[in-house]
Amino acid sequence: MMNSLHIDASKCTGCLQCEMACSYENHGVFATSKSRIKVFDFHSTGRKVPYTCTQCAEAWCMHACPVGAIHEDKALGAKVVNETTCVGCKVCTIACPFGTINYVADTGKVQKCDLCAGKPACAEACPTGAITFVDASWTGLDRMRAWAEKLDTNAPTA
Amino acid sequence: MKHVILGNGPTGVVAAETIRKMRPHDAIAVVGDEHERPYSRMAIPYLLEGKIAESGTLLRHDRNHWIDNRIELVEARASSIDADAKSVTLSNGEVLPYDRLLLATGSRPVRPPIPGMHLPEVVSCWTLQDARAILDRLRPGAKVLQMGAGFIGCIIMEAIANAVGKTGGSLTVVEMGDRMVPRMMTPKASALIRSWSEKSGVEVLTSTRVTAIEANVPHAGLLSLVYKAKNTKERVQVTFGDGSTRLFDFVICATGVAPAIDYLRGSGVEIGKLGGIVVDDHMRTTAPDVFAAGDCTESVDFSTGELMVNAIQPNAADQALVAGANMAGGAARTRGGLRMNVLETFGLISTSYGQWWGAEGGDHVEVVDEAAHSYIRLEFQDDRIIGATVVGRTHHIGALRGLIQTGAKLGADWKARLQADPNKFMDAYLATALSLA
Questions:
Q1: What is the topology classification, in CATH, of domain B347-433?
Q2: Which residue of A has its CA nearest to B49?
Q3: What ipTM goes with this model?
Q4: Residue pLDDT, tens place only, A10-40
Q5: What topology does CATH give the domain B122-253?
Q6: How many CB atoms lie within 10 A of CB B368?
Q7: Which residue among B28, B48, B120, B167 is least enclosed by CB atoms within 10 Å?
């Protein structure tokens, strides 16, 4: 069964352990600015919302990439950037309607959540269970997909 | 069933792969006229910079990709199509019959009708062959004139300027419009890109035309020998609109592109007023079983509802998915293309989306920090974002597409917050489009 990141914002305290873990996993440093997951802090409601790529089926980033640098890891369902192939053109960053694939000026490449090859560091680091890595059917992915369909640029209807 | 796809750029390739996924047993032939494996023009600036090798421009890197997916690559140019007989005649005389045909022939560079454009020192920047021609002529100390400061012109400036170097070499960019990237950037954003480019050593001439280019062949004679010794590298003399002349080593012509559709003359496939192939929302042309997608089409602008010819990679990919799905027997539709562009000039990254120039009766917020070369402008219609221009920021930029294309209603509260700080667009997107706040 395919797992995916399940985010329950009501459990998030805004401790940023996920951002720390993500940047350490992918860049070897504790630097939240380099994290692929980001906690948004809504002062008016007091809500903290961790947010990252949902590995959407439409994969606008993957289809828009002009050099085939993004592929789907079939086992994980993750859309993965091949840094060697990426030329840093940033077309994927404007194509992704979720804003979750981003350009990293230091490397001249883009980065996105790749589910850490099946062991997401953010979920392991989260002390409150706000981020868990669970069976995809639990994660509200359907809601995300319903939203994605609103964009409806390419969804076959038959 | 046999699918023939004319054009082996991103559109043709994405469509072929889409058909293959849905129809494992159909025959698929992709026709391309360049003597290259399918590659991406978007990668050419990085080739010019020396950041990647030619192999880095390939659309698909696995050598066996085409064989594994049983996609036949045909190297030829389409001369004509016969929509009644359902066949394509190729430049090599071969006649390819089809059951479904996709026109994905993209654009061709357009050159202004001025004397001297045929000279070998005038090169376009479009194909890999063009890139090789530019690289052949680039040398430290070269004086280069670039015609056109549109998207392509601006994205290659850094590579050219770095290659010619700052001692002796120079890059002059001449643009007919009143600003750089006039079809992608607001005047303020353009001004930032211009000052940044000038700081990086580029000479920028706007509202300026080139009226003639001549070979700079010094006459025989005592005086000219001295002249010749000094100027052998400067092979062309360029005349500008004000009558002044200057010498350059060579000229790069990046004055725009137009749909590449010559082969459709007399085919019955309708060409629109803008010069692109007319398609419906299923990417069907006016001829039965003939589809078209990508830069050779004119399609509906999501923002205005009007037709546009837009050379925009993500839209081409979207159209290719729709066309491919429909050729494979599906029923996919497009809601129109959203304008979107991202440009990097000497490390300064700029982006625009949708109706970035604004709408009548709409309003906007604009924040500019000239010293930091950062800028953001959001265009609103009521409480929705309909367009955006951003310079100097890339993080979460895609959320602007999400906000614009879903027509997310911000409500008075979030609109007011964005008017106070437009950089909070990702927060607004989570709070409104996704109701997560």
A1: Enolase-like; domain 1 (3.30.390)
A2: A87
A3: 0.92
A4: 999 999 999 999 999 999 999 999 999 999 9
A5: FAD/NAD(P)-binding domain (3.50.50)
A6: 18
A7: B167
